[in-house]
Amino acid sequence: MLLEVNNLQTYFQTSRGSIKAVDGVSIKLEQGEILGLVGESGCGKSMTLLSLLRLVPHPGAIVGGEILFQGGDLLKKSSREMTRMRGRDLAMIFQDPMTTLNPVFKVGEQIRESLRIHNIFNQSRFSERKRLKQEKERVIQLMEETGIPSPMDRYYEYPHQFSGGMQQRAVIAIALSCEPKILLADEPTTALDVTIQAQILNLMERINRSHGMAVILVTHDLGVAAEFCRRIAVMYAGKIIEQGLTDEIIENPLHPYTQGLLRSIPHIVPDKPRLRPIRGTVPDLLNLPPGCTFLPRCDYAVEVCKEPQEMRDLGNGRLVRCARYK
Amino acid sequence: MSQVQVSTDKTVLREYYLLRLRLAGINFLQFINKLRRHPAGMTGLIVLLFFVFIAVADPLIVPHNPKEVHLEDKLLPPAWMEGGKSEYLLGTDQLGMDLFSRIIAGTRISLLIGVLTVGISIMIGTTLGMLSGYYRGTLDNILARFADLLLSFPWLIFAIFTMAVIGPGFGNLVFALTFKGWVGFFRLVRGEVLSEKTKEYVEAARALGQSHFKIMFQEILPNIMNSIIVLGTLRIGFMIIMEASLSFLGLGIQYPEPAWGSMVNVGRNYLLNAWWISTFSGLAILLLVLAINMFGEGLRDILDPRLRRIE
C-alpha cells in the first residue's frame, strides 16, 4: 500500500458555521495505480487533493484523520518536512496551465527550477557550471518525454508562446522532474479541448506505465475517468459514496447518485434519448441533511435514509454508502 | 535519476548560451524600438542621458571650481550680455562663483539625491510590502497603519519638520526623504502582491515544495518589477524637486555647496539686478525633472501592460 488516507476531515470555519468540505474521506492507493476521484463542482474533490499536500487555503484546516505515506503520517510531519516532500514525493498538476506557469520566466527555466528546489543534481563534486549543464540536459529530456517538440528551442520560450496543450505538457514535465511517487492531477484536462485532452491523458498513462507512478485524477468528467482510471471513487458533498473498479462502476452503478451521473452524460448517437438530470441541487454544505446527504434528491428514499449511512463493503474492493445494499 | 542519458554535446550547449545572449540582445533592441515610437519618452531619455553624462564627467568639464570665490567678478551677467566675461558663460553670483560650473556640479547632487532616496525607498518599501501582502496578519495591520499615518502628513511639511529636527546636510536629507518615501512603494508592492498571491503559479510553486521566501522574491517579485521600476523613475523627479525645495528653504544642502535649490534661494536676493542666478538654476531643475517625468511616462506606457491594453 503506497498511500492510505483514513477518515480525512477538512473543515472551513466561517462566520456562519463550519463547512465540511472533506468529511471523512478514506482512500487507498497501490503502487502504480490510477485512481479517479469523480464528483460535481464543490463536492470536495480538489480540497481532498490539497489536503493530501497540506495546502488547504485559509480559513480551511484539516481537523482529523490520517494520511499514511511511506510509513509515516503526513499530518504529523513538521511544515519543513512537508515542504521538502512536496514536489519530490507528491507532485501536483493544476487545472489551468496558463496560470500555473509563472508568466515572467522561460518555460525551460521553470522546469529546471523544480530540480533546483530539491537539489536533484547536488553532488558536491560538480561545479556550478557542470550542475547547470546536467540540469539542462535533464530538462530537455523531460520536455522530450512529455512530447514538447524541438525542446532545445522551446526551452527559451515564455509560457504565453506555448499553446494550452503544450503548457500542460510543461506543467507535467515540472511535476515529473523529481520522479514523485504519487502524481495528484486536479482536472488536468478541463481547460483543454477534446483532442488535446486525449493526448494529455495518453501522455499521463504512458508516464504511469513507464515510471510506475501512482496517479490520483480528480475530474468531473466520468468519461475521462472511465477511459483512464483503474478504480473510481465517486464523491458527493464531502463524502465518498461509491468506490470500485472502473468497469464495475460504469456497467453496474449501485448508488443512486452514480446512476444519476451516468444518465446525465450525453451520448452521440442518432435519436438520442433525452438527458435525465438529477433533480434538485447540491445541498448547502453549511447545513447538510443529518442522514444520507443525497436523501433530498434520491428516488429511492426510505425511512432508514434519515440516519447517517455507513460505507458498506460488498467485496472485491466495491464500497457503497447506501441503505439499499446489505 | 542519477543516470541521465547525455543527449546533448558541448557544441549544442554553446549554442544555448549564444541563443540566450541573442535573446537578451533582442529584448533590449525591442525595448529601444518601442521607446523610439514614443517621442516624449525618447526625448526624455536623451535629455536624461545628457544630464547623467554631465553629472559623471563633472570634474572634467567645469571651467572653474564651483566653490571658488572671485570677489572682483561678482554679479557678472552671462557672457553674451554687456559687461559679461567669456570665461563665465552664465555669469557669476554675489561672491563671484561661476554659475555655469555650479549648475554642472549641482547636476551631480540632484541626481545623486534622487537615485539614492528612491533606491533606498524601493528596498525598504518592497521588502516590507512583500512581507505585508504575503503574510497579512498582525504585521500587515501594523505596517499598513504606520504607512497611513505617514501618508497623512503633507510631504513638504513632514520633510521640513524632519530636517529641522536632525539638521541640514546630505545624509540627513536622504534620511528625511526616505523616511516617507518608502510608503509609496510599500503600498504599491503590497497591493500587487495581494493580487499576484492568488494566482495559480504561486500555489503551483507551493505544491512543488518551494519555500515562502523564494516564492516571494523569485516568483512574485519579477512579476511586479515593472510597476516598481515605473513608479521609481517617476519618483526620482519628485525627490529632486523635494531636495530643491528644502535647499531653497535653507534646510537641505547649504549655500556654498552647489545645490540648485539653494542657488535659486541665493539669487532671490538679487533678482532685480542679477536675474540670471535664480533663472538658470531654476531652468536646470525644470529641465531635469521634465526629462525624468517624460522618460518615466514612456516607461510606463511600454512596461505596464494594463495601460497598454487600454490604448
Description:
The complex is a heterodimer of chains A (326) and B (311). Chain A has helices at residues 45-52, 79-85, 97-100, 107-117, 128-145, 151-154, 164-176, 194-211, 222-228, 246-251, 256-263, and strands at residues 3-14, 17-29, 34-38, 60-69, 72-73, 90-93, 182-186, 214-219, 231-236, 239-245, 312-313, 319-320. In chain A, α8 links the parallel β7 and β8 (214-219). Chain A is globular and about 70 Å long. In chain A, the strands form two sheets. Chain A has an eight-stranded mixed β-sheet, with helices on both faces. A four-stranded antiparallel β-sheet of chain A has the order 2-1-4-5. Chain A contains eleven helices and twelve strands. Helices cover 32% and strands 23% of the residues of chain A. The two termini of chain A are 27 Å apart. Chain A has two domains: 1-89 and 181-289, 3-Layer(aba) Sandwich (Rossmann fold), CATH 3.40.50.300; 102-179, no CATH class. By secondary structure, chain A is α/β, with parallel strands linked by helices. Chain B has one domain (38-310): MetI-like fold. Chain B has helices spanning 10-36, 39-61, 99-135, 137-151, 155-166, 170-197, 200-207, 212-248, 260-268, 276-303, 305-310. Chain B is globular. Chain B starts with 9 loop residues before the first helix and ends with a helix. Classes of the chains: A alpha/beta (326), B mainly alpha (311). Chain A binds chain B through residues 53, 55, 83-88, 91-92, 94-96, 99-105, 113-114, 117-118, 120, 133-134, 136-138, 140-141, 144, 152, 155-156, 171, 174, 178-179, 184, and chain B through 1, 4-8, 12-13, 15-16, 19-20, 23, 199-201, 203-211, 214, 219, 222-223, 225.
